[in-house]
Write a structure and sequence with these properties.
Length: 210
């Protein structure tokens, strides 16, 4: 099992951030354990333009790892104010990573989720997953993942329908809604941060040791 922890992103996770103010963003992708050593090294660029009449968009950035370094595609990106950028890796072999950067409006990081950020995790096995904020706040919750017998046709069809349903947890400072959530194996849970002072979504088993 790959543990749920927004500080250590894997192929089962996504990190998203909405950028509301025009300007230039410089950011990096690297090892979570070495992020504090490379805060000034931000090689990737996002240009945020004034929003016209276009609808809000989501822009996907693919994270990879080659020759000992993390890579992103695309390296440079132009978006409109209010758009969302989502970082993810489709490859299981990609080591755990973090995203951090600086914009004209301030800093952002997957290590410390704040306003207009989200973290998602796909649950690959059944069980009860208690999570909390490893950065010290009092927020916490539990995700209960139900197994499915896919050999039964009706159960398999029901499972496929449930996979497409949204499962969202909203975090607004010290409030969590809902604090308890039930999903099926394979379903993705989205943790949307409306406002927070830098929190993590960390499985209780890893929150204290990483």
């Amino acid at each position: 099992m790959t543990a749920m922890d927004s500080r250590f992103l894997t192929y089962l996770d996504c990190y998203g951030q909405r950028f509301s103010a025009p300007g230039k963003i410089r950011y990096a992708v690297g090892s979570p354990t070495a992020a504090h050593l490379a805060l000034d090294d931000r090689p990737f660029v996002v240009k945020v333009q004034e929003r016209g009449e276009a609808e809000h968009r989501q822009h996907d950035v693919e994270v990879g790892h080659s020759k000992g370094r993390f890579t992103v595609t695309p390296r440079e990106l132009t978006i409109a104010a209010g758009d969302l950028i989502v970082w993810h890796s489709p490859v299981a072999a990609t080591p755990p990573f973090a995203v951090w950067g600086e914009s004209d409006a301030g800093s952002f990081s997957s290590l410390r989720l704040s306003k207009d950020a989200f973290y998602s995790h796909a649950f690959g096995e059944p069980g009860e997953f208690v999570w909390r904020d490893a950065n010290g706040s009092a927020i916490k919750g539990v995700v209960r993942v139900r197994g499915v017998d896919t050999h039964e046709r009706d159960a398999a069809e029901s499972w496929k329908k449930e996979l497409g349903q949204g499962a969202v947890v909203v975090i607004d400072n010290d409030r969590v809604e809902p604090t308890e959530l039930g999903v099926v194996v394979g379903q993705t849970v989205f943790f949307a941060v409306a406002e927070a002072a830098g929190v993590s979504i960390s499985h209780e088993a890893t929150a204290a040791v990483r």
